[in-house]
Write a structure and sequence with these properties.
Elements lengths: L3 E2 L13 H4 L1 H12 L7 E2 L6 H5 L4 H8 L5 H7 L5 H24 L1 E4 L20 H11 L6 E5 L6 H6 L6 E8 L12 E5 L5 H19 L3 E5 L17 H17 L4 E4 L8 H19 L1
Parallel strand pairs: 1-2, 1-3, 3-8, 4-5, 4-7, 5-6, 7-8
Helix pairs in contact: 2-11, 6-7, 9-10, 10-11
Family: Belongs to the histone deacetylase family.
InterPro entries: HDAC_classIV, HDACs, His_deacetylse_dom, His_deacetylse_dom_sf, Ureohydrolase_dom_sf
Protein name: Histone deacetylase
Length: about 300
């Protein structure tokens, strides 16, 4: 059975100026249930992550300031959200959702988190709407629990996974691959194990050709036994913060190729949704829902 991490905490209310990017977390499950891709039984509600797993990848000082709501104003501005206790709890629940998905992926091949993909969270700071790095936390959890030995992070959000790159720069067990827009945030890119910076206006054909050439090679060379897929839909031409020219069909084919490659190499994969900032919420929700539809079609 397809298992999907989601609970009402994912749609934690924020001031009006921040409501739009959050509403997708409410609409995605509704659409999946409405169309019959999922039923209520597909969804599970994570608990709060134990802080010891936060501290395994994030610094003590950062976590203490975040947890006590004592972050400096400059750092809060870099995160982009007003800092509240509810927001911190939300991040803990989302991160636990990604950890929980690992167990379901090992059973069924794939599991998805309606949220997550918070790849701009560094070990010692947050930025870009990211407070805690859910993929980083979950990858470290698998290694510490000896549930995986070699992990591949497939980050296809339009923005570079800068926080994840730094988090695992000295961890050869985790290979970080980020394919992103060259002209996008963050202005200063970090060094992943493999970065592919795409020029502004990259189309479906160009994008998919690069991915088809690259991804199987990474599986052959790194030989992962677990994968994480950050499936941002801010690669769409309609996205306000991305500079690529992909269509929803191109994103759907991207997801299909990632899943089929994981299946070919018999590697379980956990999907975090990543970003999506198109002007029409319907474009965001439909593109994200395509990821769930493809997972359901190929695995179940």
């Amino acid at each position: 059975m397809l298992k999907v991490a989601y609970c009402t905490l994912y749609q934690q209310p924020l001031p009006d100026g921040h409501r739009f990017p959050m509403v997708k977390y409410e609409l995605i499950p509704q659409q999946l249930i409405h169309e019959g891709t999922c039923t209520e039984s597909n969804f599970f509600c994570p608990e709060k992550l134990d802080e010891k797993w936060v501290l395994a990848v994030h610094s003590v000082n950062y976590w203490q300031e975040l947890h006590s709501l004592g972050l400096p104003a400059k750092m809060i501005r870099r995160i982009g959200f007003p800092l509240t206790a509810e927001l911190v709890v939300r991040e803990l629940v989302i991160a636990q959702g990604t950890v929980d998905c690992c167990f379901f992926a090992q059973q069924h091949g794939v599991a998805l988190n309606v949220a997550g993909g918070t790849h701009h969270a560094y070990p010692d700071r947050g930025e870009g709407f990211c407070l805690l790095n859910d993929v980083g936390i979950a990858a470290n959890y698998l290694l510490e629990k000896q549930l995986a030995t070699r992990i591949l992070v497939i980050d296809l959000d339009v923005h570079q996974g800068n926080g994840t790159a730094v988090m695992f720069q000295n961890r050869p067990e985790v290979f970080t691959f980020s394919m992103h827009g060259s002209a996008n945030y963050p202005l200063k890119k970090e060094e992943s194990d493999l970065d592919i910076a795409l020029p502004t206006g990259t189309t479906d054909a160009e994008y998919l050709s690069i991915l088809h050439h690259t991804l199987p090679r990474l599986f052959e060379e790194h030989r992962p036994d677990f994968a994480f897929f950050v499936a941002g839909v801010d690669t769409l031409a309609t996205d306000k913060l991305g500079h690529l020219s992909m269509t929803r069909e191109g994103c759907r084919q991207r997801d299909e190729f990632v899943f089929k490659t994981c299946q070919h190499y018999q590697v379980p994969v956990v999907v975090s949704m990543g970003g999506g900032y198109s002007s029409r919420i319907a474009d965001i929700v439909e593109a994200h829902c395509n990821t769930f539809r493809m997972a359901s079609k190929l695995y179940f």
